[in-house]
């Protein structure tokens, strides 16, 4: 398996522009997570899905952020309009409950977003 | 509110020594916790999982303990090597699949 795939790996955009981050989870995993990581706040959970349904979006900072999972193999995180404070590394991760209820998560390589 | 604390200061040790990292939590009763390793420019990688009814778990040179009375987990790397240098994250969860991560502790192993 190729692991969790994220695109783009780097994104530089101007304030006010729309940004779309993409994620392909590991085949067979039924959980998908979006995180944001900064030096100041560490790794923050933004939203997670189970079987393509959003379960908890309490970490989404504000209405400018939205996430979708139209099918089991694809998810997007959209920021519209983007602001400089959105600059961070965004990670997608996937997991499954497994036989022992383990829920270990597999992370993608991340998208480094810079908003100028 | 739920809180997870890891030592924010970097841990510097000499090669061959045992590294011990600490993870404390408050206002939470996790079903299990996990430890991850993160290298610069990469996503976290799962290392070990321990359940609330387990006291200790081992994997090669790694050992994790879980004390629900102290609300603390300790992560040990024995016979540390420069290649063990990285940031280590602890994460707690109930049985929902959702993880709450600590800030991470950076370990530097010097030859």
Structural commentary:
The complex is a heterodimer of chains A (116) and B (111). By secondary structure, chain A is mostly beta strands. Helix content of chain A is 0%, strand content 53%. Chain A has no helices and eleven strands. In chain A, a hairpin with a 2-residue loop joins β7 (65-71) and β8 (74-79). Chain B is mainly beta and 111 residues long. Chain B has strands at residues 3-6, 11-14, 19-26, 32-38, 45-51, 56-59, 62-67, 72-77, 86-93, 100-101, 105-110. In chain B, β6 (56-59) and β7 (62-67) form a beta hairpin. Classes of the chains: A mainly beta (116), B mainly beta (111). Chains A and B meet through β5, β9 and β10 of A and β5 and β10 of B.
State the main characteristics.
heterodimer, A: 116 residues, mainly beta, seven-stranded mixed sheet, four-stranded antiparallel sheet, globular, B: 111 residues, six-stranded mixed sheet, five-stranded antiparallel sheet, 56% strand
Mean pLDDT reading of chain A: 93
- The oligomeric state of the chains shown is heterodimer
- Count of DSSP helices of chain A? 0
Q: What pattern of helices and strands is seen along the backbone of chain A?
A: EEEEEEEEEEE
Largest sheet of chain A: 7 strands, mixed
Number of strands of chain B: 11
Radius of gyration of chain B: 13 Å
Quantity of strands of chain A, as a count: 11
Helix count from the secondary structure assignment of chain B: 0
* H/E topology pattern of chain B: EEEEEEEEEEE
Would you tell me the overall average pLDDT of chain B? Answer: 92
Structural class of chain B: mainly beta
- Overall outline of chain A: globular
Strand content of chain B: over 45%
